[in-house]
Amino acid sequence: MSPSLAALIIWIVCLPVAFGLASLGPANPFLLRVAMVPVVVAIGGVIVVGIASRRLPADLASGIGAGLFGGWVAFTLRVALHGTPFGFDGLAGDAGRMADMANRYASTWRSSDGIVSTVPSHYPPLFPWLVGRTSALINVPAWKLLGPAEAITLSFVVVAGYILWRKVLPGPLALAVTLPVLLCFSLPEKAYEILALAVFVPWAIATFGDPPRGRLHWLPAGLIGGLSIVLSWAFIIYGALGIVALAVLTWRASQDRARYIRHVVLTVIVSLVVASWYLVPYLGWGFLHGSKQVDDLFQGGGIQDSPLLFLTPSLLGVLELIGVIGLLWYRGRVSWGMPLLLLTVGAYAYWLLGLASFSLTGHTLLLQDTPRLIGPMLAAAGVLTIVHTAPIVARRFSVRSVPAGLPALALCLLVVWTAITAWQGWMPGGPTPGGGLYQPAVSTAWNESTAAFATPLPDGSYVPVAAERGIHDAWFPTDPVKNDVTSVLGASATPVTLSTAEELFTYVNWPGYIGVSMGAAGTNTDWPARYAALQKLSRITDPAAFTAASARTAFGPVDVFILQRSSPTRWTWQPIDAPYPVLTFTPAQFSPHAFTVFTNLPGNLVVAVRQPQGNG
User: Fold this and answer.
1) 87, 89, 101: which is closest to 520 by C-alpha?
2) For residues 573 and 582, what is the distance between their CA atoms, to the nearest angstrom?
3) Region class of 576: left (phi > 0), else alpha (psi between -120 and 50), else beta
4) pLDDT in tens, 268-295
5) Residue 390, φ and ψ in degrees, nearest 5
6) Alpha carbon 239 to chain centroid, angstroms
7) pLDDT average, residue stretch 322-330
8) Residue 116 belongs to what H/E stretch?
9) Given 16, 41, 151, 587, which is the most exposed site by the fewest CB atoms within 10 A?
10) pLDDT at residue 431, as a whole number
11) Which residues contact 460 (CB under 8 A, 6 or more apart)?
């Protein structure tokens, strides 16, 4: 059996087993005895597979190992969320916006922004689209499917990376260079990005380089490229300069240059066709209506951090430093040397261009995320450098024979290192109730798993573990707001809503007028212009004029206003990550003949609902 096929089949078989086993036992992964179960499974599995591999071909054993490790990832992630219906990081930040998108796709097939439903998506839509369409198919709310979807996607990272790396390297090495992806970037709420990252480097080398095992055919190469665009195009953008350099170098060395150009052109065409359901609406909307790039104006995320990851004083930093040395030393001597070097240099060049853009224009080009690509490439180069150099060192010191099981042992240690490192980040952490001695968590630090338990349900209740551990995020009163709005407009209404919080759009299928966070707003929503329209609206003091104007802004009506009651005469809407002031409305603007106003909501919120006869 092909090792790649073995990896895929075993992973598929492991998934239902992993989900089933994870649902057994106490629904409280904060308890250390519960959290340690995946570690026991990982180490026990490595020992069993390591012993069994002595009787199997190395390639096949590595494929089996990749499939089993993928299954272990799914099991561990489900254990980490056992007891909460939310995905990792709950509804905070990007995780909440992903939930909004998934909820949107539960009611539409087309590309759509998660909040402003009238415009196509700026963010790659494949992951939330699959979650949303599954939600519609099985009639389960999309937000409840994010956790399982994250587990499946992140577990597939190991298998997908292994399968593609096998086009470039032998099986055991393919597994070894896939694992550093999880050492460098393992946030489960970003599982779809990690999957795109895991396949990017081997795809780029196998597609645009000239690997000894043969180049990837243009049809699967194009399919993978197109799916990567709709999954997360960031790494293709970060690595584009390296791809171009690799393609030029390969073309110059090719004995049949015309055939190579044909291969590249067909690959690009297939990629664009596969991604066209996302790219055509996105680019077409911008061309016809105009757009405004605002998501790269956010100045957080580590823009100021050093990109020299290989100087970090850690074991991973040492591995990356070895990778830097290996790339420089072996760049023209081994098949992987020059391609990896060009991709790494290309990513650093993109970082420098982004830094220049930020200094000149304020646009970061999302340069702060380039280390997510650079780190795994350097770590993979480190693994390959060690493997290539070890025999040379052995001969240098007159070591006549290397124990037969030493390479397998080294791979097993790398698997265990990856497993334990990832497990420590995935298990929920936080305070011990009352400082008790017998209920410690894996960590005292609040993390994305903790947030999944601390997130309130739409009715304001919390999962039992949250009360037990004393962890509670603030509640946005979704159910009370929904009840008030539907009491005026009916249950089937889909009013355009201005909300102080984006969590609302995770649970209701109402189109939003504008996202609260400018830094995460889709390009096609034209956030600054929408804000300006609201600002103009807020300055209209006459109730009749306000009613008419709010029904016909430059971007359509605002049917529901959900505002913060800052004082009896001041209702506000506060943007996030934006150099814009708070917008202030007054109760007098909302005529009782046109709006029904609710002021008895938790959190000092006020809801003004346009009455059906108040549409102007």
Assistant:
1) 101
2) 6
3) beta
4) 999 999 999 999 999 998 888 877 777 7
5) -55, -45
6) 18
7) 94
8) none
9) 16
10) 75
11) 475, 477, 479, 602
